[in-house]
Amino acid sequence: xxxxxxxxxxxxxxxxxxxxxxxxxxxxxxxxxxxxxxxxxxxxxxxxxxxxxxxxxxxxxxxxxxxxxxxxxxxxxxxxxxxxxxxxxxxxxxxxxxxxxxxxxxxxxxxxxxxxxxxxxxxxxxxxxxxxxxxxxxxxxxxxxxxxxxxxxxxxxxxxxxxxxxxxxxxxxxxxxxxxxxxxxxxxxxxxxxxxxxxxxxxxxxxxxxxxxxxxxxxxxxxxxxxxxxxxxxxxxxxxxxxxxxxxxxxxxxxxxxxxxxxxxxxxxxxxxxxxxxxxxxxxxxxxxxxxxxxxxxxxxxxxxxxx
Length: 308
Known about the structure:
9 strands, alpha+beta
């Protein structure tokens, strides 16, 4: 997973679509973007229609205040938002999100885990039920909750555009307030439709698998290697994952994972000058010999023979 700072991300946007920055950045924002930003949904709709995403969801945590009917689909549950809701997203848990009507509004903020490290609270995001696989990341809101959170997001949006010297300390406090607000809410009711659950699990497995690629640096490393790794991240039992993938793809979980690793290994062997030990490391192998045996079993060639 290629991790960039938000500043680097916006620099890429500026190169590829300079006109888009007017939509993406709040008025008066400085170039000190760091690891945090906030958006009004109405402001980014024109950009999304152009096919541009204002953030990379593989890299950032996200908290959204959503007005409108929506649906969030996870491997183990489907959650409907009828009028307004609060959604917490982590780069480590895949989900699908569908607006159910055209009347959509609200705010969302994105940040990295490092952004909160400066708060000195010791908070570990992935240990919270809001961000943990299998937890409750979506909450229905009452009109009172919606008004209160709307006011908080307005303050966040205003503060980010200010020239206050300690605004990022204040913004961290606002993010923590959002997190604690979510933890006090009752979870939204989850539905479990049996007719499409298998297809949903398969789709989210593929998304989670593909999130790890491409490998772009010898320092980057594959962090999900086994069927159990994926089952844990999707909050389902490994036997259920194996059964669903076999029924929907005709292949075992291990075969699907191995096939994608081999595909990436071939790309790295042919298109980079990294040595084989570096490639083995990035793909999660502790020993070069283990990688060589794996690659030869899958392709009938050693990595060196394939490269040559």
